[in-house]
Design a protein that fits this description.
Elements: E1 11-15, E2 27-33, E3 36-43, H1 51-55, H2 61-68, H3 78-91, H4 97-125, H5 129-150, E4 159-160, E5 163-164, H6 173-196, H7 198-204, H8 212-217, H9 222-226, H10 234-237, H11 254-257, H12 264-288, H13 300-309, E6 312-320, E7 323-331, E8 340-344, H14 346-350, H15 354-358, H16 366-371, E9 384-387, E10 392-395, H17 398-413
Antiparallel strand pairs: 1-2, 2-3, 4-5, 6-7, 7-8, 9-10
Helix pairs in contact: 2-3, 4-5, 4-12, 5-6, 6-12
Length: 414
């Protein structure tokens, strides 16, 4: 070391896999220089459940549909939505128009509850638990409506291949409209609390910045990408269900502020404005929803027979609250189950932006910057084995994963 030269010391600290700032198991290995983050490594794999393999070994695609609903407890509408669309494309099934409108209404209800849930979590990450309680109390009304319409608060069981299992009746519409009026009346308060509060502005402005060019290069989607000025939304770009009949525009922060920074504050703006947009979409669906059947084939036995004879592949794309969800399925004639099922959740791509979001920031801002993409690891995890001697990574095949699972179960029983 030469005269006058100072030694730069960096340290690596782990956050997780279990940590108060994380709502799901994940490990962040942060390299820090003082208080500044200079390196990031995200370690996944703590909640891998082998959902795709299980789905390909169910008795039929309808059983796999309800497994798709359990990929994520929060996004439990968009996954069966995308799966159903993929199977319908592969089998040549067209859902009735009324079913498409009901699917859209339920999907937008999910967006409202998911964004409000995230708003509460974001407040908790910056230590503002009063707003956490407020956001979650406000969220309860849409949860009550979803339970009223579907019979369940969490897994709805609404979707069926070729339509929906339950209709939205005329008797239910007043309660839905009442909820929409409630959110319209309280939207101004939510906007003031989250966008005008001095503490929140100080903790979120110019934190976790993702520039537009980086968002495009890293293929970010959903509110994470739109907050950086990337006006992409599957509902707008590749309209499905009833969205093709509606006027859907991707929400970006410049709609409200006139500028795009791509920070945590902008991600709050996008999600709040999307709550308002979802209210308007549901209102349009209620007004335009046609009468008619809700299933292409109401007899389950006949539907299963048609699916057994079908052959082909399909892709279902849906705009989940976190971004684009893609389900790919393949059907083979004479086979009762789906032969191939692949799921790509939005967090899978949004995680690629994590080093850009965190590097250069302060370690105290890591929880809110990380949470600002609204990550879901139950949707994302894939199984990877690392040989610690050579540090070489390799993927497990379905057969190997199954054999290891059986071996582990036998050990646990002993």
């Amino acid at each position: 070391m030469t005269v006058g030269e100072t030694r730069k010391a960096t340290y690596t600290i782990p956050i997780g896999p279990i940590h108060p700032a994380l709502k799901e198991p994940v490990r962040l290995d942060l390299t820090i220089d003082g208080e500044e983050v200079v390196g990031v490594d995200v370690a996944l794999g703590h909640v891998h459940r082998g959902i795709e393999w299980l789905g390909m070994h169910r008795n039929n695609p309808i059983q796999s549909l309800y497994l798709a609903e359990r990929i994520c407890g929060i996004c439990n509408v968009c996954h069966p939505f995308a799966f159903a669309m993929a199977v319908e494309q592969a089998a040549g099934i067209t859902p009735p128009e009324r079913a498409e409108y009901i699917r859209t209404i339920i999907a937008e209800m999910e967006r409202i509850h998911s964004h409000l849930l995230w708003a509460g979590v974001a407040a908790h990450e910056i230590g503002f638990d009063t707003i956490f309680y407020l956001a979650w109390r406000v969220r309860e009304d849409i949860m009550d409506v979803m339970e009223y319409v579907t019979g369940n608060r969490i897994t709805k069981g609404m979707f069926q291949i070729g339509g929906v299992r339950r209709d939205i009746t005329a008797e239910q519409l007043p309660r839905i409209r009442q909820s929409l009026e409630y959110y319209k009346s309280i939207f101004g308060q939510l906007k003031r609390v989250f966008l005008d509060d001095r503490t929140i502005r100080m903790r979120t402005k110019n934190v976790g910045i993702l520039k537009r060019e980086d968002a495009l290069k890293l293929l970010t989607c959903g509110p994470t990408g739109r907050a950086s000025g990337v006006a992409k939304d599957v509902r707008q770009d590749q309209a499905y269900a009833a969205y093709a009949d509606l006027d859907i525009k991707a929400i970006t922060p410049d709609i409200l502020t006139g500028t795009v920074v791509g920070d945590v504050y902008d991600r709050i703006i996008v999600r709040l404005l999307e709550v308002k947009q979802s209210i308007e979409i549901i209102e349009q669906c209620i007004e335009k929803m046609p009468s008619g059947p809700i299933l292409a084939q109401p007899k389950t036995a006949a539907l299963l027979n048609a699916l057994t004879k079908a052959e082909g592949e399909g892709i279902g794309r849906a705009e989940a609250p976190r971004g684009e969800v893609i389900h790919y399925v393949r059907l083979e004639a004479g086979r009762e189950t789906v032969s191939t099922w692949k799921v790509r959740a939005p967090t899978y791509t949004n995680l690629m932006a994590m080093p850009t979001l965190l590097i250069g920031g302060q370690i105290a801002d890591v929880p809110i910057a990380f949470a600002s993409i609204d990550p879901c690891f139950s949707c994302t995890n894939r199984a990877v084995i690392v040989d610690r001697k050579t540090n070489k990574k390799f993927l497990l095949t379905d057969k190997e994963l199954r054999e290891l699972s059986i071996e582990k179960t036998r050990k646990l029983k002993c």
